[in-house]
Amino acid sequence: MKRVVVSGMGLVSALGCDVKRAFERLHIYKNAVVVREDLAQIKGLNAHLVAPVNDFVIPEHYTRKVLRTMGPVSVMAVWSAEQALIDAGLLNDEIITSGRTGVAYGSSFGSAGPVLDFYSMVKTHEVGPINSSSYIKIMPQTTAVNISLYFKTTGRLIPSGTACTSGSLSIGYAYEAIKSGAQDIMIAGGAEELDPTQVAVFDTLYATSVKNNIPDKTPSPFDVSRDGLVIGEGAGTLILEEYEHAVKRGAKIYAEIVGFGTNTDGTHITQPNKDTMAECMRLSLKCASLSPESIGYIDMHGTGTKHGDIAESLATEMVFGNKTPCSTQKGYVGHTLGACGALESIWAIQMMNNNWFAPTLNLKTPDPECGKLDYITETGCEFVTNYVMNNNFAFGGINTSLIFKKM
Question: Active-site positions?
């Protein structure tokens, strides 16, 4: 079996669109949540909070021809992939088009705008703004396909549309593609664009935060006073590479992926199952041939919802006890859905390599119903570890766990 390393990273986030700058923003302990007035105008919508990307500008070299098949989610995905390839020193390298490079990428959904155009046709009985690219922008594989098209990859394409595990599952499947020898390089990650329909999805489940007058105090994962999640947006891309190939070309290596586990609950479509979540973590540990004591930090999913926080924390306690430091970045950027697994993997790697681990913002008093864990709160912690785990969980009972090793 081949070894798999991370040789490039790129992101678009509410904390910034540069990996280094976004990591530095974690040290400020201030979230990116704001009130959006257009949400307040929607009758019956209780949540008016979002965590938007503010400083992303579509590059001039993205021509009209390039953009015609892309909605905002694909633009962010392609741009973060471009930055990751630049970071890896692989942009325009012949291996990208050789068939030895593949793409594993996903999102919860494509772009919502064209969906409304199709619905308008049904209501008005006029084709209207629908064109040959409309479906391309909303199809489940839109991010993966647009990345492949833009960089002209001819290897494997592994799209993921598994809601909040889209990014992490893509990274896991990319890892397996290289580990098995099927590919040498994989462009992997996830993206999500912000749209009122996404807020409505969780609002109808009473899972959104309605602290509309105190956006800086929410979301508050695992806290006794939490009242739900806040929707965010962004994109995260990791360049995965076969270890010997990376070493041979003198690549900068950020981390090695040594463990991946995924399974499904098989019990309820929206309410998580702590037992299968715990088993997913054990699968990742088994893949890495590691004991729970080897993991120095756990990057938790931490949505800020009652059922999600309780199940995840209890599952984590079942596997690790209460001695492993843990936190989530969702207090900073909200829940970025299909992007969260990739963004949080990037931040977990950055924290491991810098020996500094961010707290869970707005976690003051852990909910007594949650697992008894070593939650990082208030300010960051400095310590050294060689292994970090990133866990994500999604509607449909889809669980993922990734383990990264310091190089």
Answer: 164, 301, 335
